[in-house]
Amino acid sequence: MWKHLEIELYKIFHRPRTYLAFAAITALIGVIQLGLKVDGKEYTEFVMADFAGSFSVDGKILNGYFICYVILQLLLVHVPLLIALIAADMISGEANMGTLRLLLTKPQSRSEILLAKFLASVIYTLLLLIWIAILGLLVSLAIFGTDDLFIMKSSYVVVVKSSDVFWRYCGAFCFAALAMTTVAALGFFLSFFAENSIGPIVATMSVIIVCTILSTMNIPLFNLIKPYLFTSHMVTWKEFFDFKVNDANEAIIGSIQYPEKIIRSAIVLVLHIIIFVVGGIWYFRKKDVLS
Amino acid sequence: MYKFFLLVFVLISSSINAQEQAMQLVQKVKAKLDAVNDYTAEGKMRTDVAFIKAPVGKVKVYYKKPNKFRLERNGGISILPKGGISINIGSMILVNGYMALDAGTAIIGNTNTHVIKLLPNTENSDIILSTLYIDESNLVIRKSVTTTRESGTYEMEMYYGKFISYGLPDKVIFSFNTKDYKLPKGITLELDDIDQATKEKMKGKKGKVEIIYTNYTINSGLAESIFKNN
Question: SS3 for chain A, per residue?
């Protein structure tokens, strides 16, 4: 299987569209960093318009940690498209080129071949996230410096001490990796049902868009299904940036407000990954491959 | 008729006398504080506001007469309520014209204090009324309640230690009513689903900012430039 994984990685990284995703990420992060470097003060004033009327905030709000938080919030909505470009093409792309039957003539079992393909798309996803982490966090820290992380939630404000932030980003990126792997698994699953790449890519994005809308709309009917939608759990990385306080409202350094939410969301996402991958393999093992 | 006028005269003169005494007491406290031209103090600040989660941080404060004040968090972000922002003793006694009224006595902690209400003479002053609880034996303010036009009412409680001779406290607790403050609205795509009990907990509670000073450097001749970025 490892040999096959190498072959799949070779295929992925010899496609121009793979680098298009990295270039798109670089451009997007660069634009955000440039914008905030030039007009960051106006942005923070706008963000804190309500709050600044009552409170005076002193300190370097526009620091590397804050920039990375903004980047993650904006990018993690769009990165699924870049992941779908590769993951949803894994099987359908072979079918489209007519190489799927040839591929299945290899001595490995269908399951091994499919797992190698899925692992290759997961590695691509992880590399994309590492690239986001390098540009979004490390480069932002180099450009904007460090300070406490100031976050405005919908009903309260959180200030995370600078010495307490980095490990939270490590946790958030690990969680984001799980969330994006779910997207890769969905794209991979849908790629079994088409013989061209466009269909599964569009279908993957459509599923994500519809589920995201259902997740964000606060309507009682949708609230019933929200806990079962993977998109409801993809944003749980933000839980890493909220901490517990004691009775005197003092922050407990190194704590997470709702660790159970992170665990629950991680379990839901892992279950989705298992369902998509096992379901896809199960379907493909029975499929009569004609392309 | 003669007795009536005598009674009115006695009442008016005793009232004027009480006001003069109150004014003198405030002047004495002010004179004690005036001995401090500037100071730098290091300490720890704790923000206890239901809808703000902030860590306890080290702070450094700078003060220069008459009302220049700067609070600096050591490399971090600090949040303070506007209005009573100058958490310093000097800000409690009105710098410009005011009238002092004797309002009796009260016990703060275990200390007997003289209650004095300060009313500004000018109509456009932001401070409407300031009530001081003065410890007459030490000539220090133990507590103050200030009502402002823009920022509502806020309270300051002072606890003294080794710098009592300068009228500088070791600990200041600044309290304000959080219901007057707007809760921040989510603008960064934050869709946190907190429960109703937590939401209620975040409303209608008194907010507190507590600073415990560990060290004062008095009359070192602070430069004006320190306050320019404030």
Answer: CHHHHHHHHHHHCCCHHHHHHHHHHHHHHHHHHHHHHHHHHHHHHHHCHHHHCCEEEECCCCCHHHHHHHHHHHHHHHHHHHHHHHHCCCCHHHHHHCCHHHHCCCCCCHHHHHHHHHHHHHHHHHHHHHHHHHHHHHHHHHHHCCCCEEEECCCCEEEECHHHCHHHHHHHHHHHHHHHHHHHHHHHHHHHHCCCCHHHHHHHHHHHHHHHHHHHCCCHHHHHHHHHCHHHHHHHHHHHHCCCECCCCCECCCCCCCHHHHHHHHHHHHHHHHHHHHHHHHHHHHCCCCC
DSSP chain B: -HHHHHHHHHHHHHHHHHHHHHHHHHHHHHHHHHT--EEEEEEEEEEEBTTEE---EEEEEEEETTTEEEEEETTS-EEEESSTT--SGGGGS-SS-EEEEEEEEEEETTEEEEEEEEEESSTT-SEEEEEEEEETTTTEEEEEEEEETTTEEEEEEEEESTTGGGT-EEEEEEEEEGGGSPPPPP-SS------HHHHHHTSS-EEEEEEEEEEEEESS---GGGGTT-
Supply the pTM of this predicted model: 0.81
Name the pLDDT band for B83 (thresholds 50, 70, 90): low
Contact A59 B57 (CB under 8 A): no
Within 8 A of B77 by CB-CB distance, chain A residues are 57-61, 147-148, 150, 159
Q: What is the pLDDT of residues A235-258, one digit of tens each?
A: 899 999 999 888 777 888 889 999
Enter the ipTM. 0.76
What is the band of A65 on the pLDDT scale with cuts at 50, 70, 90? very high
Interface of B with A in 58-77 (CB under 8 A): 71-73, 75-77
The residue-averaged pLDDT of A61-77 equals: 89
Q: How far apart are CA A166 and CA A163, in angstroms?
A: 7
Q: C-alpha distances in angstroms, B229 versus A57, A150, A236, B70, B121?
A: 13, 20, 38, 9, 31
> Do the Cβ atoms of B182 and A53 come within 8 Å?
yes
pLDDT band per the 50, 70, 90 thresholds, residue B177: confident
pLDDT digits (tens, 9 = 90+) for A3-12: 888 888 998 8
Instruction: Find the farthest-apart pair of alpha carbons in chain B and give their distance in angstroms, rounded.
Output: 78
The residue in chain B having the minimum alpha-carbon distance to the alpha carbon of residue A145 is B75
Residue of B nearest to A216 (CA): B191
Task: Using an 8 Å CB-CB cutoff, list chain A residues near B51.
Answer: 155-157
- % of residues, chain A, pLDDT over 70: 100
Q: Looking at residue B119, what is its pLDDT? A: 85
| Domains in chain B, CATH or no CATH each | 2-221 (2.50.20)
